[in-house]
Design goal:
The chain is built from two helices and two strands; from the N terminus they run E-H-E-H. Helix 1 links the parallel strand 1 and strand 2. The two termini are 18 Å apart.
Length: 66
């Protein structure tokens, strides 16, 4: 799960992550510093979005193919 540092939905994401962890679900959660809501879809414009995309892909591969 990822979130932007300045995302208006971040409190909900934080609460969701906390509930998953409380339920014993393994969670990888990263908040990307200096970013705004929807930064992840701006890979053609923002280097941090490209880095976040690569990181998300690596985490997904790790989870699906341990």
């Amino acid at each position: 799960i990822l979130s932007a540092q300045y995302d208006f939905l971040r409190p909900e994401v934080d609460a969701y992550v906390a509930r998953l962890k409380a339920a014993g679900v393994p969670v990888c959660y990263q908040v990307w510093p200096g970013t705004l809501h929807n930064f992840f879809s701006m890979g053609d414009q923002l280097e941090i979005a490209r880095v976040a995309m690569r990181n998300a892909g690596a985490q997904l591969r790790k989870a699906l193919h341990p």
